[in-house]
Amino acid sequence: MSAATPILHVIFGPSGAGKSTYAGALARRERAVAFSIDDWMARLFAQDIPQQPDFHWLMERIERCEAQIWSTAAAVMAAGTPVVLDLGLLRRSDRARVTEIARLCELPARFHYLTAPKEVRRGRVMSRNQIQGEGFSFVVTPEMFDFAEGVFEAPDADELAGCEVVESA
């Protein structure tokens, strides 16, 4: 790995924590290319999302999007440009997988954990649904928010040791 190897910034946190907004600002600041799973999922699958949240349906499509994102991000980094990944990474195993990919590819990775109190995040999501401004990809229903809350696994102290933690009220 040369000194000129660009950094892979990895954003994670629960729904409504501000990941997409933060990722966009970080990409502008670092002159990086941002990849947001929400944007990809919205463009490719939003019209097909089942009314009742289905974890397996969702994960299959997220995995397809992530595979294409990784392929494209690798090409961007090979060209010398930093990358910001906003993949959600709700589960510890998802974050461990990204850590392992970065390690195997010898990519310097910096993790950024975003969080806020649950009711603040819920309020942001419901407001974003109405405003549909920056950071909006698709409507997140209260049921979808609750579903994501049930899937999210907060990082423990060991996982947070190497992270930049961003807490918002």
Can you give a write-up of this model?
This protein is an alpha/beta fold and 169 residues long. The protein has helices at residues 19-30, 37-45, 55-78, 92-104, 118-131, 142-151, 157-160; strands spanning 8-12, 33-36, 83-86, 109-115, 163-167. A 5-stranded parallel β-sheet has the order 2-3-1-4-5, with helices on both faces. α2 crosses α3. The protein is globular, with a radius of gyration of 16 Å. The mean pLDDT is 87.
Main sheet summary: 5 strands, parallel
Class computed from helices, strands and strand pairing? alpha/beta
In which order are the strands of the major sheet placed? 2-3-1-4-5
N/C terminus separation: 39 Å
Enumerate the spans where pLDDT stays under 50 for 5 or more consecutive residues.
Answer: none
Radius of gyration (CA) equals 16 Å
Order of helices and strands: EHEHHEHEHHHE
In round numbers, the mean pLDDT is 87
**What percentage of residues falls in helices of 4 or more residues?**
40-55%
Tell me how many strands there are: 5
Globally, the shape reads globular
Oligomer: single chain
Q: Work out the strand percent.
A: 5-15%
Helix count from the secondary structure assignment: 7
